[in-house]
Amino acid sequence: MVHRGGMVIVSNRAPVTFSRSESGERTYSRGAGGLVTALNAVSRRAEGALWIASAASEEDVRVAREPGVCEIEDLRIVLVEHDPSAYDLMYNHLANPLLWFVQHGLYDLPYAPELGGETLRAWEEGYLPTNRNFARATAEALSGLESPVVLLHDYHLYMVPELLREEVGEEPLISFFVHIPWPEPGLWRVLPSYIREGVLRSLLRSDIVAFHTRRYARNFMASAAELLGAEVDPRGGAVRWGGREVWVRSYPISIDPAEFEEAAESPEVLREEEYVRNLPGALLVRVDRADLSKNVVRGFRAYGRMLELHPEMRGRVTFLAQVQPSRGDIPEYAAYAEAIRRSAGEVNEAFGTPSWRPVELSMQDNFPRSVAAYKNYDALLVNAVRDGMNLVAKEAAVVNRKDGVLILSENAGAHEELKDNALSVNPFDLDDQAAAIHRALTMPAAERARRARALREAVLSNTIEDWVAAQMHDMAARRKAFS
Amino acid sequence: MVHRGGMVIVSNRAPVTFSRSESGERTYSRGAGGLVTALNAVSRRAEGALWIASAASEEDVRVAREPGVCEIEDLRIVLVEHDPSAYDLMYNHLANPLLWFVQHGLYDLPYAPELGGETLRAWEEGYLPTNRNFARATAEALSGLESPVVLLHDYHLYMVPELLREEVGEEPLISFFVHIPWPEPGLWRVLPSYIREGVLRSLLRSDIVAFHTRRYARNFMASAAELLGAEVDPRGGAVRWGGREVWVRSYPISIDPAEFEEAAESPEVLREEEYVRNLPGALLVRVDRADLSKNVVRGFRAYGRMLELHPEMRGRVTFLAQVQPSRGDIPEYAAYAEAIRRSAGEVNEAFGTPSWRPVELSMQDNFPRSVAAYKNYDALLVNAVRDGMNLVAKEAAVVNRKDGVLILSENAGAHEELKDNALSVNPFDLDDQAAAIHRALTMPAAERARRARALREAVLSNTIEDWVAAQMHDMAARRKAFS
């Protein structure tokens, strides 16, 4: 079913970034990354959808200042200009350190965070104004549309539902998708009440609030009940609040398999495969951002533990870790990147020989090499402390050619879909992870093949198109139920 | 109602500690502390109750090895001897770092804990054997008793219900009281499944599982549902699991007001009052163990923030912090004690004058001075990150003579009962705490008096006797319902 009314997608990140060539012409590049890929699929599905996002580059700002809609290939885009200091407060003081840390449970609570007036300022002078900009741009885009649908995405935009309702009332159907974990009320209590209650009240002005997993949906309903006193029907997936009923749903996000199958045959990837295949022994792989939630340090330590317990594996495996730098200007991230380097070095120091380096750590963004690694791993380690979904697990399962085994944290969103054919691990337990790595590397071929096939089928049975279709279906049902 | 059958109380800590005088005679001292006081009240109520606890001192071990029950004043005691290394594993490797940290949410999860084989060893060679010792001693004590009731206490004994049922079957009524916070399932997931599921399965062999607050009871039911798949009736306070129905209840623990009113008039306290009353200006007080959950560092920093924002308060208030050393052999605690000293020093450095020291930090156990401080505070700061109950808030409210204002963390168990007349604070928000300190110290006399009176009444309306009575009542009801 294609949505026939007007559809507006809103996300902080835009699907394209504009720049100016040396000759002064406007050029653009299309963004990559899981969320943008997913929203591209939504945009394709909903013909003529408008996509509203933040202006990021200087040229983006020029585009934002031009009237009307910018049409690029199959996309119709409106860029929103924010005051740079407001954007900085929203992005670098509120969304990325605070909300990201709370929702992933990353704070060392006896010491951090130290909230206060600065938090309030980031909220009032950063988060609220940027969200208001989005709400206004959306309201403008909606004018004249019939049965409009607004799809709001992720933790940068929590206040948009409320601010948008103030502008346009109850007519548009609002769906809000949260792409990161929604923790239980106890973690939300870390935040000041104006944030934790403000966010909840705003989200409950939506018609549908959506998550990647049933667990997050359940936690959201528990939060609404406990922090706001809302009436909740956990089985039915509904929250009643302020005289309205909000549907709470889970749609596990996925990938476009064709995109990865195509990338897997690209010349860049084939070139990188030469490097990857020349690494000695079996291939253990991880591909992650250098984020505190990804558990890179414990991954190396667990691998070291495995080499300690199973000396016969020494020289017979290489751990290729593709870890992209991330948010290096936040002190906690700089310290974590350092801890990653140190812990990789410790394993190499303890077990390396002149002819064998146990860990090959690359802290650069190298997509072709990551895909080359996806194709060739014998075991893939995804041991996140917490992770909204983790698309690496899905991408890799589709293109792997070696019947590679997936080792998967029970706290990754992907665990709900993939657990039956992955080796589940507790991300805090080094010996559990060490045992899983060993088991993966010594698993009989028949079991490897069976698991790999089942994983691939699990991913192919719920692609990004299915993810979009399921949401469209529920939005139509919602419209029908409440019209 | 006095329980007429045989009642057995089991706790790790004993109500008395035995020692040997220089002349070789056996002597003993009665323990203090909230839990022991509470269980003394249970013991008084249930005439002839037997109290089983761990032998701690050398002389305790001798007592444990003598046959029969040891009668001391109004107490009937059986001490259990543990293998010292098993006890050390239970106490110093499993209960106090791991369970305490998880249940209070104190881990810096990107880095700690690093669980593994050592955890399994502490569980199998420490926690299980000591719990088995308790179960056996309890089974022995039960033999021949009619309608026996077993009251198990706290996080050192989680496996006793299961091990005891193995020995004696379904006949005894088992009540298990957890005195520390019960967090949501997400935090329990930090622990290996053999612990988190093992603990839950065992607790669900009890008839009643009890907590200090409704929030903990709710979290327990959510844990049973999510981690075990048990059927839960949150409104009715019941979990159905393994063909049995378990009642889940909350009974906010309290104090014996007479004990504190008496202590308040003791010569030692009167002497300490001279010191306390000579401190310059209004008196802000905190009394805590140096535990990572108590939030001592943020307390000093919030006080410093208040002095920064309200220069007129400088020289007109002293912050007396009685912080008892605790668990100094655990590295995290040693580091925290150092952070406490440093942060107090920073405030004194920034604002102190030759005639005024803003913070008086005493890191010694000085009960008379603490009671003297209780009597004389103008404001009491209880800003715990998380706290099972926090009896300081209740003790102090009863003996304070100054219409002192209670500043209370919304994450302390006491908050459910006392919030209406305390100033609630978010323990992570320095400015919120700074504002509450300022408001407390500048509050009009009439409001202070009204709040102080209401707090005192709230405590007096639910004393330790009421706490015991409520449990006895429910145990009788349970017996009736299932007989």
Automatic annotation (TrEMBL), chains A, B:
GO terms for biological process: trehalose biosynthetic process. InterPro entries: Glyco_trans_20. Belongs to the glycosyltransferase 20 family. Pfam families: Glyco_transf_20. Transmembrane segments: none annotated. It comes from Rubrobacter xylanophilus. GO terms for molecular function: alpha,alpha-trehalose-phosphate synthase (UDP-forming) activity. This is Trehalose-6-phosphate synthase.
